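Kindly go through the entry underneath: sequence plus fold tokens. Please state briefly how this chain folds according to its tokens.
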Amino acid sequence: MEDLNEQMIKTQLIPRGISDKRVLDAIRKVKRHLFVTKAFQDTAYFDHPLPIGEGQTISQPYMVAWMTELLNLKGTEKVLEIGTGSGYQTAVLSELAKHVFTIERIETLSINAQKILNDLNYKNISFKIGDGTEGWQNEAPFDRILITAGSPVVPAPLLKQLSEGGKLLIPLGERFAQNLTMVEKKDGKMTTKELGACVFVPLIGRHAV
């Protein structure tokens, strides 16, 4: 699997523009096959999403790398992740940030991700089961917020929980037509920038409509 991971980096990520050494090293360290069921481990390093149960998916490796690179993490940040899923993106973030707070609405997925990440000895991750669109008020503000599901709007509570100078990344749009969008808070005001087309599973929650 080591060779497949390295091959994925060299043939899928670097040629498509992923250049941040810290991001590439994190992808290199986090083994994607550990976050999928045995039935899909042989294809874990192919460049496409894979099912993880409960109608959810683990994102394609390129998308994970791209979104992570866009966050421009330096190692000092508090990151809020909406949608723990398999825990793969969570692990990559935890390699690059000071602490990751991750929320998953589906209990079985959260419990499974917690077990995998605990077995891998990650210490800088906090887990919560619940409505991710509510955010994590008790731990706010966050320097970075990553939403790993598509929504027609940016949930208002997440904007409020973004720190000054912070960045929020979200697939924004309709069910099958989303645009990866960066929201930045500067002087208390929000600026947005569309970065490219994407398709994610729907964000479900009180503030996602």
The CA atoms of residues 31 and 84 lie 16 Å apart.
